[in-house]
Amino acid sequence: AQSVTQLGSHVSVSEGALVLLRCNYSSSVPPYLFWYVQYPNQGLQLLLKYTTGATLVKGINGFEAEFKKSETSFHLTKPSAHMSDAAEYFCAIETYSGGYQKVTFGTGTKLQVIP
Amino acid sequence: NAGVTQTPKFQVLKTGQSMTLQCAQDMNHNSMYWYRQDPGMGLRLIYYSASEGTTDKGEVPNGYNVSRLNKREFSLRLESAAPSQTSVYFCASSGGWAGVNEETQYFGPGTRLLVL
């Protein structure tokens, strides 16, 4: 079984402050990990992903995330929040084992940016 | 490239009515997915199709059926709609697991379904 836990359904930060959105996962096989962003009334779009190789991955709009196997975490960060970052963020895990693909999304974290 | 398109954008049904949600992608992707999104529950996978001609159940398949009509199109059918199926439905596609860069999912704009 696999799962994704996002800590905090709502996070508020001031404009210019550090953004930290937490994601922990559980998987019995090596995972691929993703962060997606959803703006109001839109579908999800990929921010960044970890597949193999470098554990620090950089995405669009200045976001990055670090895969820490020992902590089973894949937290999303951005050094300085911008008003346009206000959206809902989803962490997702994808595995492929025994010929079957399995995808699980977290419950999402809504980011509010305060001017 | 239109990416992933979904029709309709919005639909209201009465309990017991049936309808089909349509999804098409023009990226020559192998895999396609149907999700539902409900407040506080994230996205839950209903069905997916790893390749043309195959479909598999996801986390919440009850009350739904799917058809992978061809490589481009993947439809979701509600045979007898229930108020519990009120949700936002997203279709997605990905290249599949043929290569390192092909597992990213690309999402459609969603269909908002209200069942009265």
Q: What's the oligomerization state?
A: heterodimer
Average the pLDDT over all residues of chain B and give the rounded result: 90
Cα separation of the termini of chain A: 41 Å
Computed over alpha carbons, the radius of gyration of chain B is 14 Å
Secondary structure: helix percent of chain B: under 10%
β content of chain A, as a range? over 45%
Biggest interface reads: A-B, 25 and 28 residues
Rounded mean pLDDT score of chain A: 91
Q: What coarse outline of chain B follows from CA principal-axis ratios?
A: globular
What global shape of chain A is seen?
A: globular
| Structural class designation of chain B | mainly beta
Helix/strand order of chain A: EEEEEEEEEEE
Described by strand count, sense and barrel closure, the largest sheet of chain A is: 6 strands, mixed
Task: Characterize the main sheet of chain B.
Answer: 7 strands, mixed
Low-pLDDT ranges of chain A: none
Number of strands of chain B: 11
Tally of alpha and pi helices of chain A: 0
Number of helices of chain B: 0
